[in-house]
Amino acid sequence: MKEKFFIPLLLGTNRKGRNSENPAQWIFKKMNSRDDIETRLFDERDFALPNDDYGQAIKDSFPEYKDAIFIGENGKEVLPFGEDLGGVFKVKREVEKMSKSKYNVVSPDAICEQYGADSLRLYEMFLGPLEQAKPWNTAGITGVHSFLKKLWKLYFDDNGLKVTDVKPTKENLKTLHKTIKKVEEDIINFSFNTSVSTFMIAVNELTTQKCTSKEILEPLLIVISPYAPHIAEELWNQLGNSESISTATFPVFEEKYLVESSKNYPISFNGKMRFTIELPLDMSKEDIEKTVLAHEKTIAQLQGRQPKKVIVVLGKIVNIVG
């Protein structure tokens, strides 16, 4: 019975660009069984190459491969390789552990040089739970790299540092404290991937809120620092702190900032929403009805008509009929 060798891969130059100093190489994976796969690297300098028939050249040069059948990506026998695949050999995508023997190792040094250590660190955590295996895709690191750029822009603009001593708004405090709460829970549960998502949401919200308050942005750095220590340390120093951020006390979550005291009610007319109005959550139905009917936008919608009914669902919606 003939042995089958799957997935030929051409490394280095193609047929047109190679020379004696830059030879072509191939990897062949021999599937002995479902869980036993041998891998071997061939260099064209190891054997004679008649008429670019790589398969026959390997068979002639290595007796152990004389009865081998080489299977291409399309599942068909590849003989000669040059005719069947045009001189270019491709591989199928396989999900497997990084290994030198499989030639699929990604160097962290190259990633750090291009994107920075914080980007690599965040991306590895963002891929998923620590205990699970995840497929590596270097292209995906651009997402967390962009997030770090956006984080920097919270503190700096074209004119330099823009953090001020202005008092934070309710929205600012709510964003900060829900972030602290979520990250604390994630650290306890080793769910670092959801922490990274929480940071992205927080930075987006604070950017939309145009937050420049040091009272918000300084503790935010402390929360982020275990995940992205280098950028956090730099921004911490830029804010005027002389000691390392690693010695700073982790912010304390305060429940009061997450308690909702008001509701943004959608106001509908015959089932069609026309505008919204913010009202206290403890306001009674009667007071809500009076406030909505006295609103200038309601008067404009009714155009002097008397509504037949006003339906108030506390904490939900107000619908004016008629």
Describe it.
The structure is a single chain. The chain is elongated and about 100 Å long. The strands form three sheets. It has a four-stranded mixed β-sheet, with no helix packed on it. The protein has a four-stranded mixed β-sheet with strand order 8-7-10-9, with helices on one face. The protein folds into three domains: 4-85, no CATH class; 141-256, Isoleucyl-tRNA Synthetase, Domain 1 (Orthogonal Bundle); 262-321, Ubiquitin-like (UB roll), CATH 3.10.20.590. By secondary structure, it is α+β, with helices and mostly antiparallel strands. Helices cover 37% and strands 18% of the residues. It has helices at 54-61, 81-85, 108-115, 117-126, 141-155, 170-189, 192-208, 214-224, 229-238, 285-293, 296-302, and strands at 4-11, 25-33, 36-43, 69-71, 156-157, 160-161, 262-269, 272-280, 309-313, 317-321.
Secondary structure elements and their pairing?
Elements: E1 4-11, E2 25-33, E3 36-43, H1 54-61, E4 69-71, H2 81-85, H3 108-115, H4 117-126, H5 141-155, E5 156-157, E6 160-161, H6 170-189, H7 192-208, H8 214-224, H9 229-238, E7 262-269, E8 272-280, H10 285-293, H11 296-302, E9 309-313, E10 317-321
Parallel strand pairs: 1-4, 7-10
Antiparallel strand pairs: 1-2, 2-3, 5-6, 7-8, 9-10
Provide a short characterization of the protein structure.
The model is unreliable at 1-25, 31-35 and 79-91 (pLDDT under 50). The strands form 3 sheets. A 4-stranded mixed beta sheet has the order 3-2-1-4, with no helix packed on it. A 4-stranded mixed beta sheet has the order 8-7-10-9, with helices on one face. Strands 5-6 form a two-stranded antiparallel sheet.
